[in-house]
Structure formats: structure tokens, C-alpha cells
């Protein structure tokens, strides 16, 4: 066997028989990678791609899954979360599909991962250089709420015409004294395009600014990708006299006692309580510090 054959053979760990490595065929992977390369070169630009049929329904993470399978390499360590939870049905099935079709190592520890596919959250742990964060995106265009015609929205992006978003924010502040964007908060990338930050909460938005990791966003239903390269300026749009505000909580996590995590409601000891959304981070704190 030639050296090249040895290299190619070693590049593909043992995976489930009957399927191509990483599920997608080579032509599909190349097409998605080309779209991602353009998206990385033009931060925030919504780039179309030929979205494939996947073994998950459109709207349930097919775009993020395609991005993951097109960019994954044999040495990858993969983590999959759904709203911060490693054990939800969506996260478990995605992780099983990725692991079975590639044979790569999977983990629930964000610190050990090199590629994280996520829905609705950024892990609480600090993410380092070289990490890739793949976001599952339901609605890719921040103009969708205000302009339903794709051709008109594309022209507005090209012209940098985001007046309708600013007008929506103004109406929110004049009526409610705050923005209605509890998630998918519109942000300006490198002083250019305005993007939707997917359904991550406002709590996570500041972590995208000058982040050391590469953020890739995949919308399978809309057949679109966009990206935020490492160390890129990501600025939530807001008025000079209205500061951008993140969610705050009056009580710590009922399980680990954290005062710095994003919390969601869960039943604890038969009663509703606020607990960490990032379940792996919460479990580790409990192990280190003991239950509250």
C-alpha cells in the first residue's frame, strides 16, 4: 500500500458500515466548504448553499449538522448541546449520528472539545483558539421579521440599509422601555453586515465579540450559512442612550450555586427552581464544590 493510501486510510477512523465517512458525499462536502470559506472571508454575509436531505427534519438542526459533517476531521473531539443540555433527545441523536458516521471521539466537556455543535447556547466554559462552534440556525436573516421578500432583504443587506431594524428597536424602547429581542439579538459584524445571533439569549451575545473561536452558522431549511471569524468585532445594535442589557437572575443556581451562569427553570425536589442551562458545567461545579 502506498504512503498516500496509508494516509487516506488513516484519515478515516472506523465508522458504521454502509455509509460514507461523515455521511455526506465528497461533492456535497466540497460545496458546503466553498460556501463556508466565502462566509468566513466576508464576515456576516449570508451565503447560500445546496442544502441536502438529512436524517433529521429541516428546522431541527439539519443546517448545523451539514456544516459539522462537512468540516469535521478524524482528530476532532465533538460535543453537541441543545439549549446547554448534553442529554436532550436532539443532542443525543445528533451526537450519535456524528460519532457513528465518523468514528471520532465525542465528549460532554466543552474544555476537551475541538468542535461544538450547539442549539441556543454558548457553553459557559472559556473556549480557546482553534475551537470551532457550529450553530444550528432556524432563521438566518435578521431582516425577516421586518421584510419577508428575500430579494428586497438581499438588496437592503447589500446597501447596508437596516433602517427597519433600527425603527423596530425604537418602537420597542418607546413602548416597553426595552428591546423585545430576548434571543437572536441583531449585531453588527466588523462595522458591516448585521446578523442574527440565532436563538442564543442576550446573555451569550457579548461572548461573540473578539471571541478566539471560529463561529459557523448553518440554516438547513433556508439553505444558508454565515460566519464570524476569530477575533472579530461583534457589536449589539443599540442607541447611545440605551445600553445593551443581558438577562440577570435574583437567585443562584439551585444545584451548583453559580451566580454567573445563564439559568433556566427546572423542577428540583418537586418544586420549580432556576438551574444552570449548561448541564455539564453545572455537574462539574457540583462535583467540585458539592451540591447546594
Brief account:
This protein has helices spanning about 5-10, 25-40, 60-70, 90-100, 150-160, 165-175, 280-290, and strands at about 45-50, 75-80, 105, 115-120, 130-135, 185-190, 195, 215-220, 225-230, 235, 265-270, 270-275. With about 290 residues, it is an alpha/beta fold. The strands form three sheets. A seven-stranded mixed beta sheet has the order 1-9-8-5-4-2-3. Strands 7-6-10 form a three-stranded antiparallel beta sheet, with no helix packed on it. The chain has a two-stranded antiparallel sheet with strand order 11-12.
Return the CATH architecture of the largest domain: 3-Layer(aba) Sandwich
The radius of gyration over CA amounts to 20 Å
State the domain count.
Answer: 2
Apparent shape: globular
Low-confidence stretches: 1-10
The amount of beta strand, in percent, is 15-25%
Q: Give the H and E element order.
A: HHEHEHEEEHHEEEEEEEH
State mean pLDDT (0 to 100 scale). Answer: 92
* Biggest sheet overview: 7 strands, mixed
**What is the tally of helical segments?**
7
Structural class: alpha/beta
- By CATH, the topology of the largest domain is Rossmann fold
- Care to count the β-strands? 12
CATH homologous superfamily descriptor of the largest domain = Bacterial phosphonate metabolism protein PhnH
Please give the order of strands in the largest beta sheet.
1-9-8-5-4-2-3
The CATH class designation of the largest domain is Alpha Beta
Distance between the termini: 59 Å
